[in-house]
Amino acid sequence: MLRLSWNGFLDRWRLFVGAVVTVCLGVALIQSSLLLLVTAVRLDAPPGATALQRMRFDQGAATAVALLGVTLGFAAFLAVFIIGSTFAFTIDQRRRDLALLRLVGGGRAHVRRLLLGEAALLGGAGALLGVLAGVGVMALQTRLLRHLRFVPEGFRGEWHPWAAGASFAAGLALALSGVLLAARRAARVQPLDALRDIEGAARVMTRGRWAVGLLLLLGAAVLAALSPVGGAVGGQAMAQTVSLCAALAATLLGPWLVPAVARLLPVRMGGVLGELSRAALRDEPRRTASTAAPLIVLVGLVLGQGVASASFTDAGRDELARTTRADLVVEGTGPVGAGVAAVPGVAVASTELELPVALTTGTGDAAYTRTLSAVVVDPAGYVDVHEGAGRLDALAGRAVVRGPGADGFGRGDRVGVRVGDEDLGRLPVAATVPQSIGGGAALLLPPGLVPDRLLAEASARTFVRLAPGADRADVARVLASAGAVHDIDDWLGRDAESRQDTSNGVLLVVMGLGALYAAIGVVNAVVIGAGSRGREFAAARATGLTRRQVVVVALAESLTVTGAAVLLGALAAAGTLLAVAAVTGVVTGVASASVPWTLATSVVLGAFALTACSSLLTTWSATRTPPVALLAARE
User: Fold this and answer.
1) CB burial class (10 A; 0-12, 13-18, 19+) of residue 484?
2) Would you call 544 helix, strand, or coil by DSSP?
3) What is the pTM of this model?
């Protein structure tokens, strides 16, 4: 059977090129993300750094590790999804070939071994190319991470010999797992039924597919409903997952959903050509669904995550603007609060000294340590400047308060705190500040708890409220000796811009190359679908259609499928939008939902351009051979 698999590969290499490409790029993306993750885990602070500088470095490294971990998970998900759908599609396009094999004496086991053998050849070739391509992808990802300042300037991904073997094995496993279910399904079809293309052989919506698709759809609805009670941290995570579950549900239900949605689209081609394109959509639900699947995932995930990122960033900015009662902000280093408060014209001055801390929650085997941010504050000043902070009378001595960006512990717990090389021991959490949708410090520390030598290195931010009648310009001129002075509106704008840049950077790192991979999956689906329709196109030309008319029919079909896929992907993203509005409404009191229209327009136009170009090129190539030559050919 291995020889037969090799001969089948040589005979239909055009059909299999797309499968090899998907394995290659999937392996390259996984290998690159894995090696960068391993490198980030082993990052060490530069020699000569102080204890506090080492802790800040570790905090940045932990952020990079978390970011690369999410990137690796996203790359693995896309690889499993795209490779599996591509291999299943290639098998479906060969139903007649497999039926002929059964008629000449091949059993079900022979069919399964044939398809698994082909998958091994394709997976091996793609994985080998992916190992080589992964080096270039890692260089590209490293440059992107450095440019967005998620890693230090000298950061470089380290190559490990074991990565080649692990990546090759992963590519082979993905190819075999992707074809396994499709091979079992193809082997169960009766050969005469497949040759006649009757409903039993072509049935796409199996009971298992219905069950999993509806279960994912139910999961998306449950996540959207529960997200408002998840708090600022859990609610955001659940809201962002809604579009993922909804997009996957739409792809599994695609053979039923895509043709149904396509019939509802208001723009249709009239005449005979329009009837032909609609007949193709109706009669080939598997091809239609396979073409639409990567588009649904691409649009749903990119728009869903883009909507969540923009909405939570805007909600955090608006929340900060509503709850901050100050006229000026002074940014400097070290404890400058006393000097700022003594300036004539200053009514209230609340200084926040920000420090990285190693925070340990739990005890024994359940102990968990993270490097987070803490601020040393004066309780009265903090409450006066931050509306809704509540009473902080208990913030004194060795008691601490859970900050607006914390999760995993609460009032009454004891947490371990280390600042630089100073271990403060287990401290009681005496109160909590309401969680903020925009995050913030994990801990509020009282004055006198952290040694002065460490406070001297802390970043200081002082919120200043002016006395009635004070001249803003004169006060700002005097305050300039303590640090950079900003008007509150200007500071809020800069803070919002910084948050937006960070969110955009995270979105680009996590989904940038993954979205490109999904886009290539779209091209593969179009190419595979058109590449196996040579005889169909020849029959259409033999009945009187010109080559140009055949190309137009295929283009109309592709654009209709794209429209349905974009609509389904947008609906999946809309689930995240609704969940985001619910979360922000509960956490901040004001529902916020923002749509990044530039990103949405780019994704939609890009999807149509991608499928249109792919359809035009592949259909024009498939109709180069004279129709008589194709119709006279015997398989």
Assistant:
1) exposed
2) coil
3) 0.85
